[in-house]
Design brief:
Blueprint (H helix, E strand, L loop, with lengths): L10 H13 L10 E5 L5 E6 L29 H8 L10 E6 L3 H10 L3 E6 L6 H13 L2 E4 L11
Helix pairs in contact: 3-4
Length: 160
């Protein structure tokens, strides 16, 4: 009897790969982020990426790091927020795991907590020392959300 192949993707690699592929939909010139929400049966419940709200013309909003109304940060929906809002039929996310390519900000952490997501797996934590990310970690810890760094093999999907 022939053995099955050994180089297949683990569940973490598979779901982080979906998050990474989703990030490639982002039109943000500097930071592309993706998210994938998975239930306890290993089914994808929702995906999202950072981008403008539905119906907003991407060409009429600034994509730079400008000041005031010229800053993209006032307009862009984060990947985690989009994944939560994109859940089909307002799916119950209680007990789900969210895979994200970039550790979430404090606002997304609040949304993760409020929906009952129980675990967060992140690929990058490049802003770890920033105040909003420190607050995010504190919120997630206080709420009992399990947080862990992605430890799978390096994925070969290329982003900017």
């Amino acid at each position: 009897m022939e053995e099955h192949r050994k180089d297949y993707l683990s569940w973490d690699e598979y779901f982080m790969g979906i998050a990474l592929l989703s990030s490639m939909r982002s039109k943000d010139p500097s930071t592309q982020v993706g998210a994938c929400i998975v239930d306890s049966d290993k089914k994808v419940v929702s995906i999202g990426y950072n981008g403008m709200p539905r119906g907003i013309d991407d060409d009429k909003i600034p994509w730079g790091h400008g000041e005031g109304l010229e800053s993209k940060y006032l307009y862009v929906c984060h990947a985690e927020f989009n994944a939560i809002l994109n859940a089909r039929g307002g799916s119950n996310l209680r007990g789900c795991t969210i895979y994200v390519t970039l550790f979430p900000c404090n606002e997304c952490a609040k949304a993760i907590i409020q929906t009952g997501i129980k675990e967060l797996v992140y690929l990058s934590d490049k802003y770890a020392g920033g105040t909003i990310y420190l607050a995010s970690r504190k919120l997630l810890e206080m709420a009992g959300v399990k947080v862990r760094a992605y430890e799978g093999k390096a994925l070969e999907i290329k982003t900017k």
